[in-house]
Amino acid sequence: MSERQTVQLVRRARDFESFVAGAGGRLLHAATLLTAEPADANPRAQRLLTAALSRTYAAWDRLHGEDPYTYARQQLAYRFLLLSWRLREGRGGVLGMLSPQERLILVLRVHEGVAEEQTAALLGLPAERVRTLCFRAMSLVLDGEPGPLRLTGAETVRGVARVRP
Amino acid sequence: MSDRRENEVRRLLGTAGAPTVPAELYEDVVRRGSRLLRRRVRVRRLMWWAAVLGFLAFVVWVSVTDPFVPPPAEVTPPLERW
After folding, report:
1. On chain B, which terminus has fewer CB atoms closer than 10 Å, C or N?
2. Where is the RNA polymerase sigma-70 region domain (chain A) (predicted)?
3. Alpha-helical segments (H) within chain B
């Protein structure tokens, strides 16, 4: 192996390590909210994070200026979507009463501040649907019930149209 | 109204207490990440070899069987004015 390659490998390892040191805690928090586990007993969230970060490690040289945090978060969301049929029932945590999809939307939109359009693209849903689900999830978390059915403008219009054709 | 509620939810999610990242997680990530990389390199190398071998086989086949030369006509043209 040439000296240049070794230097590159060392730099790569250092960069990745500082990335994990900086972002690992926040990502693990998000993962723990997704799996609806208590903060001190979160094996599923740790596995999810390990999978997402190892893919980020493998893709490190191909990111080409893309934010590694965004990439890792996207991987986390994808892996969670794949697993969510098994993680259906939460094990406590703040979001235990929500469905996996609602948890994902709430964590991405509110905890991570991802824009509505990007969340919608990530989940393959229309933005309207994401807004409705996010509203529902917030009502469930804050009030313990899905909330009144006056949601967004478009939803209301559609609801009225169905009641009074 | 929605902003206030969003802040409330954000605060609630924050109070859950941030979990600590276990020390062995980093090593686990690097080990699995390197394995993924190695596998990807191996697959790419294998595909290159397959492409090269396929091309060589094609060249040999072409040079042996001459498949692009039109076959000799099976019908003799009519004989006129000789």
Report:
1. C
2. 95-138
3. 2-15, 24-65
Lowest mean pLDDT of A81-95, A105-119, B22-36, name the range: A81-95
- Segments in chain A forming alpha helices (H): 3-35, 43-59, 68-83, 100-106, 116-123, 127-143, 153-163
Give A88 to chain B, closest Cα distance, Å. 19
Q: What is the ipTM of this complex?
A: 0.75
Q: Residues A73, A19: contact at Cβ < 8 Å?
A: no
Nearest to A53 among B9, B20, B29 (CB): B29
Structural domains in chain A? 3-163 (1.20.140.160)
Nearest-CA distance B41 → chain A (Å): 11
- Is residue A78 scored above 50 in pLDDT? yes
For residues A22 and A24, what is the distance between their CA atoms, to the nearest angstrom?
Answer: 6
Cβ–Cβ < 8 Å for A63, A53: no
Q: Which domain holds residue B44?
A: 24-61
The verdict on A90 touching B (C-beta cutoff 8 Å) is: no
Backbone φ, ψ for residue A116 (5° rounding) = -60, -45
Question: What pTM does this model have?
Answer: 0.77
Residue B48 inside a domain? The answer is: yes
CA distance A16 to A20: 6
